[in-house]
């Protein structure tokens, strides 16, 4: 069975920590709710934030290693030069979407900071939650660009192993 090197990147660690925190928070809330018929007020707000963070961090890891869901059939049957054009078009489409997300996410985070908006559950500043949207979108753009460079140079990651 082929082995791949571990993915020790900041966003991989961030995704791992977010998943661990979600599990600990949720488990703690279930135990407290079962034992006392009350629940922690912060669990839903933090869990939703951590789930979004986990999603974007995981997307950055997947973008770096060319593991996003896409249609590869066309790539496999094109000549080398045409395949490179498809790689650039794929990258460009992703950068446009994530660039818009980064721009409007940053604008939204700045407005939340200026307006001093507070979260409905805990009353924390909303910008603390929202700032991660443009940051993680930018991280995905960076990882997509690294992946594009590798693909244009002909470097291939080992095939993804799907265990069932």
TrEMBL record:
One of its GO terms (biological process) is C4-dicarboxylate transport. Part of the tripartite ATP-independent periplasmic (TRAP) transport system. Belongs to the TRAP transporter small permease family. The keyword Transmembrane helix applies. The chain crosses the membrane at residues 12-34, 46-64, 85-106, 126-145. One of its GO terms (cellular component) is plasma membrane. This is TRAP transporter small permease protein. Keywords: Cell inner membrane, Cell membrane, Membrane, Transmembrane, Transmembrane helix, Transport. It is found in: Cell inner membrane. One of its GO terms (molecular function) is transmembrane transporter activity. It is a multi-pass membrane protein. Residues 22-153 form the Tripartite ATP-independent periplasmic transporters DctQ component domain. It comes from Marinobacter profundi. The complex comprises the extracytoplasmic solute receptor protein and the two transmembrane proteins.
């Amino acid at each position: 069975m082929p082995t791949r090197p571990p993915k020790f990147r900041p966003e991989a660690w961030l995704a791992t920590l977010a998943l661990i925190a979600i599990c600990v928070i949720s488990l703690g809330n279930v135990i407290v709710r079962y034992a006392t018929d009350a629940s922690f007020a912060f669990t839903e707000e933090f869990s939703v934030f951590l789930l979004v963070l986990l999603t974007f961090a995981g997307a950055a890891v997947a973008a770096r290693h060319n593991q996003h869901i896409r249609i590869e059939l066309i790539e496999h049957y094109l000549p080398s030069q045409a395949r490179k054009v498809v790689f650039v078009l794929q990258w460009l489409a992703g950068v446009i979407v994530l660039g818009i997300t980064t721009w409007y996410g940053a604008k939204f985070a700045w407005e939340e900071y200026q307006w001093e908006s507070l979260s409905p559950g805990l009353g924390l500043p909303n910008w603390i939650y929202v700032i991660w949207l443009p940051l993680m979108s930018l991280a995905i753009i960076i990882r997509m660009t690294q992946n594009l460079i590798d693909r244009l140079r002909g470097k291939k990651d080992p095939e993804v192993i799907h265990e069932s």
